[in-house]
Each structure stands twice: as C-alpha cells, then as structure tokens.
Amino acid sequence: MTEIIDCPSPNFDERKLPISIVVLHYTGMQDGASAIARLTDAAAKVSSHYMIAEDGQILRLVDESKRAWHAGRSHWRGVDDVNSASIGIEIVNPGHEFGYRPFTDAQYEALMPLMHDIVGRYGITRGNIVGHSDIAPTRKEDPGELFDWERLARVRLALPRPVKYLTDPHWTEGGFLLALERFGYEVIDGTAAVRAFQRRYRPDRIDGEIDGQTRAILLSLLTGGDKGAAARLAKS
Fold this sequence. Notes:
Elements: E1 4-6, E2 12-14, E3 21-26, H1 32-39, E4 50-52, E5 58-60, E6 66-68, H2 82-85, E7 86-91, H3 95-98, H4 105-122, E8 129-131, H5 132-135, H6 149-153, H7 173-183, H8 190-201, H9 212-222, H10 225-235
Parallel strand pairs: 1-5, 3-7, 3-8, 4-7
Antiparallel strand pairs: 2-6, 4-5
C-alpha cells in the first residue's frame, strides 16, 4: 500500500457508534492544495480520515478512532449519525463546480489497497461502501457519475451494477421508494433519492425518473444481484 503521510486536521470529535460504513467523496475544489487547506482549517469545521491526491499520495487527516466531519446531515440504512459510523475518504477532483473529470489511475491504485485494509479490519460489507450522494441525496453529487464503481466492484470493494436477468417488477412509485428505503436510501425527497441511485447504478442516464430499468436494477440488488439471479435460474 502507498505510504501514508500524516497531515493532521483539528476537525474531529469522539465516535458514538462502531465503524460500519466507508464513504467516498470528491474534494470539489480547484486543486489539492485548496482541499488540504480547507480540510485542516479549524474554521471550516470539515475533515475526512484520508485524502488521495491526483498522483495517488495518501494523506491521513484524522485518526480512524475519531469522528471526522465529512458526511454532514446524512442517512444510510437506519444510521443518521453517519460520521460516527464511517471512515471518510476524500479523492481530489474539482467536481461538478470546477470542471469535473475522470479520476486518475493513480488514485484508484492507492484507493483500493487502502479500502481493502479498512474493510478487512472492520468487517464492512459491500452494501455499506457508499458515495456521499448516496447518504445525502438532496445535497451532494459526489463522487459522481465518472467515478468507476465497477473497478472497485471487481475486487469486491463495492456492489456491482446488475446487468443480467433484469426483470421489471412494475412497482408503483410508492412501492419503488419503499424498496429504495429498504435498500438504504433516505427517500424524503423521492426524485433526489432516485437520481442518487441512478448516479451510482445507472450513471449513463440520471433523470430522476422511476422507469423499468431503474426498478429492475433495484430489484436485482435487493435479491443478490447477477449472481443471485444466476443461482436461482440454476435451481429452476
């Protein structure tokens, strides 16, 4: 794993929950230096546990035992204090405001061993490896549609996007939102929640519409994905 450089942030407090979630972010600032300055500024009241520069350098800003301030108001699978339950990793990228672009190979090559180590130590499930937009769909878009979740999924560091055996369950809008809430999302703003789900699992079209493909992808995720469908077919 890439050597980790300590760059302490004063922005943390004590955890109230055991670690069970990893949250991935983009920094959303013009460059890495600006991101470091903000994440270590006591007045900004924001931080993360790690930051990964565009060249793959990993900085540790807050010790994992402490509660970094990266998630803000958020929710995932019944947890409202996501900061207390999570490790936050910021990945340097200007984001949608300053010229969003693909993440670098060096960033993925640094991120995956770091995540593998974290996931192994805390027993974090793939369903609890999320983006900031997943846990705060009304406020956030990061790490965004250009983040290669499938690259992580191939090494079991994220849930893969279902692509086979997709079947539309023809849920009503309310039925879909109930299923989405069961999967983990907060659905107070239904359109925002649908867009966040699509940004993660159908990034080629993010329109907030509950269509047949969106319903089918969610049904597959709730029932074991492509592997679950293949296993059921083999038994039939």
